[in-house]
Specification:
The chain has about 220 residues and is α/β, with parallel strands linked by helices. It has helices spanning about 20-35, 40-50, 55-60, 65-80, 90-100, 115-125, 145-155, 170-180, 195-200, 210-220; strands at about 5-10, 105-110, 130, 160-165, 180-185, 205. Strand 4 (about 160-165), helix 8 and strand 5 form a beta-alpha-beta unit. Helix 1 crosses helix 4 (about 65-80).
Amino acid sequence: MLKYPCLVLDHDDTVVQSEATVNFPYFRQTLQSFRPGAEITLPRYVDGCYRLGFADMCRQWYGFTEQELVKEYLGWKDYIRTHIPAPFPGIGAVIRRQKATGGLICVVSHSCEENITRDYRTHFGILPDAIYGWDLPEEQRKPSPWALEQIMGRWGLAPEQLLVVDDMKPALVMARAAGVPIAFAGWSRTDFPEIAGEMTRLCDFSFSAPEALEAFLFGSDA
């Protein structure tokens, strides 16, 4: 019997290593185009996404208009079509084992369905059972609990039958609002000890590597 019939996985920097190799380089490029002379470092970018969420970081720090946010998103979609991030070592085993034992894989992410689908097909040879991404209206994205409510309603699951696995604070807000347990994907935040410490303290579970998550989910023989 599965410990959690449904795993709710984030995508960027929980499943794939996209922050430093794809998303941040593209944002720096966009920032130079939209706000010439403005600079941002990777630590500041990570902190902004963690504490504010990407869209509000753009609005509050750089005064992005709604039209600029749309333009940034469309440009990012073009960029990621030719920039495919690698998965974290070991996460594929978690995904495949959850599916092989009859469990659900749902993705709740600030990535879009197109690249999530591509990454799962390319790296794992399977597709998630459901994807709730940036394509949704903003009020339905993380940190809103809307996606978790949809998952529970669609499959008739109780909150304790889901486990959110994520590296960022918006997911914590989402999970708490829906009464769903959350595990911190600590393997993606080894270079950011302040975030790692806060998420470890606030989340229900914390794992330093995908292999530790696998053992927790499926037993010590994982």
